[in-house]
Design goal:
With 311 residues, the protein is mainly α. The chain is 75% helix and 0% strand.
């Protein structure tokens, strides 16, 4: 052998080559034994111990031994899946596909991990890639069929939710605008209401004054005219006794009469014979068309004072 700068080493001897080959065979045999031991532990549901054996087996597999490496990675991915560690299961499946992109089993393992992690669309794509390699694979075919239905359902629910949110947003916008318009017009409505209340108060006051003047004129007129039919007291006003207006319809007079007569009947604790007779007398006059006309004509001779109200 030549030593030093630019030195060249001689080819290994036959004995050294035999030792190297024997070491490679021993390593591969050891990796194979560890993988089989891991498979046995997996079948016995000792998943943690199986993962340990698969990990040790990977340490004895050379980089160019792709088939053995893919098998061990897929087996360890399955063991992680049994333990519910889907992230590590997905990582081993992706490593296996990095070594051999045609491994259908790796696509299945990766798709299952993605599905459990909630990545529905990615899981479907992974299963579809595996199925494109092996179209006859029943497991992949079933997963693709199931997930396509789920993806459609999710899309429809998502679309429905988007439409619902858009509608709620639109309705909220409309409601906000209506509230704003309502608030902007609130002062104007309040002002109108205040003006209306003031007008009603003034009108009520004027009407009260009118009634007082009318009553005064009627009493003056009644003293200078003969008594009305059935009138025993010149001060009586049949409309006031019944509590109705002079332009009240016959149906309204009868309704008020029945209400008062039931309340004031002498047989009742709060009844009054005098009140009962006065109500009956007033009704007898006002319920008859002819007598009511005569009564109204007599009232009109009292020179009723009219007060004009200009709002």
């Amino acid at each position: 052998r030549q030593v030093g700068h630019g030195a060249m080493t001689s080819a290994p001897t036959e004995e050294e080559e035999d030792g190297r080959v024997e070491g490679e065979e021993t390593r591969r045999a050891h990796a194979h034994a560890l993988r089989l031991s891991g498979n046995d532990l997996f079948q016995r549901k000792s998943y943690v111990a199986a993962i340990e054996h698969y990990t040790r087996a990977l340490g004895h597999v050379a980089c160019d031994e792709e088939e053995d490496m893919v098998k061990i990675l897929n087996n360890r991915s399955a063991a992680y899946a049994k333990l519910g560690d889907w992230e590590k299961s997905l990582l081993d499946a992706e490593r296996a596909l990095g070594v051999d992109a045609s491994s259908v089993r790796s696509y299945y393992r990766g798709g299952m991990a993605l599905l459990e992690l909630g990545h529905l669309s990615r899981s479907l794509c992974t299963f579809e890639l595996g199925l494109s390699i092996d179209p006859q694979n029943k497991q992949l075919g079933k997963m693709v069929e199931d997930l396509q239905g789920k993806v459609r359902d999710v899309f429809q629910r998502s679309r429905t939710e988007e439409v619902k949110l858009s509608r709620e947003k639109y309705e909220s916008t409309i409601e906000e605008r209506l509230v704003a318009e309502s608030l902007s017009g609130e002062l104007e409505r309040r002002e109108r209401e205040m003006r209306r209340e003031c007008r009603e108060k003034r009108k009520a006051k004027v009407e009260e004054q009118q009634r007082a003047l009318f009553d005064s004129a009627r009493r003056s007129a009644s003293r200078s005219r003969p008594g009305l039919p059935g009138d025993k007291d010149e001060e009586k006003n049949y409309y006031e006794i019944l509590g109705v207006s002079e332009d009240c319809l016959a149906s309204g007079v009868r309704k008020q009469y029945l209400k008062l007569i039931a309340r004031c009947h002498p047989d009742k604790p709060e009844g009054s014979r005098e009140r009962f007779e006065a109500i009956k007398e007033a009704y007898d006059v006002l319920s008859n068309k002819a007598s009511r006309a005569e009564y109204d004509a007599a009232l009109s001779t009292g020179k009723r004072t009219k007060v004009l109200y200009d709002e």
